[in-house]
Structures are given as C-alpha cells and as structure tokens.
Amino acid sequence: MYLVLVDWKEGRVLVTGEPSHVEKPEDWDVEYVAESWDEAYQAALLIADEEDFVLEWYLEDEVGRRPVKKRLVGLKNVQ
Fold this sequence. Notes:
It is a single chain. This protein is 27% helix and 27% strand. The protein is an alpha+beta fold. The chain has one domain (2-64). A hairpin with a 4-residue loop joins β1 (2-7) and β2 (12-16). The relative contact order is 0.24.
C-alpha cells in the first residue's frame, strides 16, 4: 500500500510506502491510498500540478517496488 500525503502549509506532496518515514506526521494529510507505487505517483503528480506544490518520494520506494532491468551497454563477454 502506498500513501499520497500532502502538507498544505509547506506546499509539499509525498508518495511513500512507509508512513513511519515522515518526521512530523501531524503536518501531513492522507489524500490518496493506492495499491501500487505507479498509481500513487500518478495521483500525487495530479495534486502537485493542480496546487503547484513540490512532489517528493523516496527513491527506494520507486526502485525497490519495481523490477529493475539490468543492462550493459557496449560491453561484450562480461560475466
């Protein structure tokens, strides 16, 4: 589960899979709950764009929840 949190006073939108990462939870409102990171990010993007707020997320949430494709470019016979 991923949350889209909004800090209306500071003009910030946060996508997180770990609400415990938020330093001052009382400053944030839960605006959207999603099953996937992509869904939460899209909702957060809409809110941030509409309100002209800063959009934030934890890189480990984005990368850690998606399959990572490993690709070597320009290298041959690498094991």
